[in-house]
Structure formats: C-alpha cells, structure tokens
Amino acid sequence: MLRKVQRCYGSLEYLSSARRGYASHPPKARLNIPTDYASTPLLHHSAKSALANKELSEEARNGTTSRINLFQAVNVALAHALRSDQRVLLFGEDVAFGGVFRCSMNLATEFGDDRVFNTPLSEQGIVGFAIGAAMEGMRPVAEVQFADYVFPAFDQIVNEAAKCRYRAGHNADSMNCGGLVIRMPAGGVGHGGLYHTQSPESLFTHVPGMRVVVPRSPVQAKGLLLAAIASNDPVIFLEPKILYRAAVEHVPAEPYTLPLSTAEVLKEGNDVTIVSYGTPLYTCQSALAAAEKDFKCSVELIDLRTVYPWDRQAVMASVNKTGRCIVVHESMVNAGVGAEVAATVQEGCFLRLEAPVQRVGGWSTHTGLAYEKFNIPDVVRVYDSIRNALEY
C-alpha cells in the first residue's frame, strides 16, 4: 500500500504538506498526471491520419478536415442532420441559445424556432414529446441537459420508447420510435458532485430495444451521432462532458456515419486486453504506455463505442488471443457495463483465460464534491490491474 501511495503522489512528504482535500498530482508524479490531449495517440493530430480511417465513406476520405473539439463536432453533425432531412428536430432546455455546453449554438438561427426550440424544464415532457414525434415519422433529437437529470424520464424511455416497435408487432414498420435520439452530457469533470457527475449508461443497457452510444472523440462523436439519427432504433447518446473542449482533433469535413454496435481496436497487443469507452480510454492509454515500458508487455486497447448492444465477437476474439481482460469505466462498478463484459468473457473465453477478468470502475458510492477524482478510476488503478493480470 505504501508503494502504491508513493507511486501515485511522488512522496509521503507531499501528502503531509499539501493538505489537499482532492486528488491531484505533485511535480514528480509519474502516472497520475493530466492527460496530454495534444499528443495522445487516441486523437487524430493530422488530416492524413483522420482521412485514413477505413470506416469513413469514400467522399469523406477524399475530402478535407477541420481541427475542432467534441462539442463543435456535435454541432456540425446536428447542423448536417437538420439541413439534410426536414424530419429532424432538435429541442431541450436552453437549446435555442446554444445549450449549457454550446452544442446547439447558431442552429436556431439557421433552422428556425419550429425545428430548434426550447422546452419547459421537464424531462418527462421532453422525452414524451420526442417519442410522440418519432411515432409520427419525425426524427427528433432530444437533449437532456445533464445525464443526472434523465431519471424522471426513465419510465418514458423504458416503457414507451424501448417497447414501441416490439409492441407494434406486424405494424412495426409504421409504429416505432426509429430516429429518436436522446442526447445527454455525462461523466465527471472533477467538481461535478452529486448531480453533475453521473454516468448512467448501465441502467439503459438492461433494456432491449435501445442502443446506448458513448463517443470518445470529435471524429467519433460526429460519425456516431449521424448514425444514431439515421438509425431505426431509439438511441441514448451520452457525450463525455469533460471532452467537449479538451479533446481536439482533425475531423473530416464531409458528412459520414460510423457503425453502431461495432467496437474498435485502438491498439493491438498480445498479452492483455483492456476494454473501455468514453473518457477512461485516455486513462487506459496512459496506463498501458507505462505498463508496457515497465513490464515489457503488449496491451490491446478496445473502444466499445456502443455499450448496448455491444460487440461481443470483437472482445472475445481479443481475449482469446491475449488470455487476459480488464474492463474500465467511470460509472459504479456494481452491475455496470464491466460486469456484463466480464460475464460474457468468462463464458466465451474460459479455457483461454490466464487470469480472472478484472473490473476497474467507480467506487460503489455517490460522488462527493471534494473527492470526485478519488472516485473515478485513475492511471494507477489501471496500471496495477495490468500488473496483477500479468503476475497472476
């Protein structure tokens, strides 16, 4: 334990002198240092890299790029959807002036208040209206201002949106919620506390009939959001709020979609598989870089992108190769996405496993305002999990 504390904070003298009430890093810290988004290999730092993505359409690959952040990528995707399909609507609390995170900035000016508009402060009303619009043939994009506020609309999502097509039976072609997208900022920022930090994605992964998507970057946000709007399934689209401005990369200027329910191997490896999504991928990248140097190992990193229905085949193929699996996510570890991935890996890869499947998630407690960074998985926890898997 002493070694772990020293590795995380640099020295015990720092702990005794700093008197901090939150997690931070000293000048000599080696692992838990801020993510350098300007150099991380998880982002495209050149146009050539961005346009080399084989998942892009030919038109997008032959086009140009612009260097934008994640909230701007969401804005670009929404603008294209509104411009290309008159059925698309965008609404939510404060959406008309741009929203809390500016994702809908200038859209009301271009498309008018009959297609981009504010709603009352009622999540039940926002989602209920969106379901009705979708059933009438529109493609509504409803914004819930923070994921923490979605719970009053849980009944609408679970009992109406998710069940609509199944309930319609033979009439499903004319009675469904296809085209419904519920967008919401999610995850921690370091100071969100009880009501601006939650990651509720696992609650929706229990519900058949929904897709649950979490992008990791501007390129992914644009392509996955356009795919969600085009999808004939209702989609919960969670945008990691800390990445809105932090993650900046070259994004293809032309419209494109990225496949839903298809994982992406971000880095190939032979000894350990790490499965994650959203913001923790950057933590995983930092941890595996240090682990590969220290332990002379090779780590494979997979982004689920869609956490339900998730890409079981891709994950099991990786674990059957490496023999070890670690699942990392911000949300609470209990009954989380990691539990489902771990159970599936245990069933499908049991004879190939060299170590127990490990879950690294948020602690099973509410997030205190002063201790948010202690609750979210950090580089040290992922690094230690890699070491434990290799030494088992």
UniProtKB/TrEMBL annotation:
Catalysed reaction equations from the record: N(6)-[(R)-lipoyl]-L-lysyl-[protein] + 3-methyl-2-oxobutanoate + H(+) = N(6)-[(R)-S(8)-2-methylpropanoyldihydrolipoyl]-L-lysyl-[protein] + CO2
One Pfam family named in its UniProt record: Transket_pyr
Any one GO MF annotation of this record: branched-chain 2-oxo acid dehydrogenase activity
Cofactor(s) recorded in Swiss-Prot or TrEMBL: thiamine diphosphate
SUPFAM superfamilies referenced in this protein's UniProt entry, alphabetically: Thiamin diphosphate-binding fold (THDP-binding) (SSF52518), TK C-terminal domain-like (SSF52922)
InterPro entries assigned: THDP-binding (IPR029061), Transketo_C/PFOR_II (IPR009014), Transketolase-like_Pyr-bd (IPR005475), Transketolase_C (IPR033248)
Listed EC numbers: 1.2.4.4
Protein name in UniProt: 3-methyl-2-oxobutanoate dehydrogenase (2-methylpropanoyl-transferring)
Protein's organism: Friedmanniomyces simplex
High-level lineage: Eukaryota, Fungi, Dikarya, Ascomycota, Pezizomycotina
